[in-house]
Design goal:
With 159 residues, the protein is of the alpha/beta class. It has four helices and eight strands; from the N terminus they run H-H-E-H-E-E-E-E-E-H-E-E. The longest helix has 16 residues.
Amino acid sequence: MKIINLLILFVFIGLAACSEDDAAQIPNDKSSLLQTGQGEFNDVLDDIKKGEKTSDSFTIFAVKVENNILLIDVGYAGGCETHEFELIWPEVIITIYPYQFGVILNHNANGDLCEAFIKETLSYDLTDNPLGLNDQSIQDMKITIINGSDPDNAVSNRE
């Protein structure tokens, strides 16, 4: 009976050591803002079309723009290392109104092999955008985030 109690105790300790709450305390680097460059964007998009992953695995759940802030709800496995996201923004947009963008989001897990599932909202300030969009254009635009690890997981803020 003591052995069973000890095993149960070890299981609970193991679960607590890698709980989502603990993992969520690992700081994530959200400083990689809008990276522009049509050449870089096209190169990464070509790699994705060829089936080459340009990113560590993650999932995009939702995308929205509020008060000129792009909010992207993502989830990924980890919890032991700092994770970084890079948003690759093209220089060319579809010029019908509202403006339409395809943007690539890449994830660098920095070799994190932990298995907690982290959910977080990435935020990017669109007011300093390189395309010179005004506030109304930012609110009206349709932006599709393409997942660099899974192009089938592309999510838009509008239908």
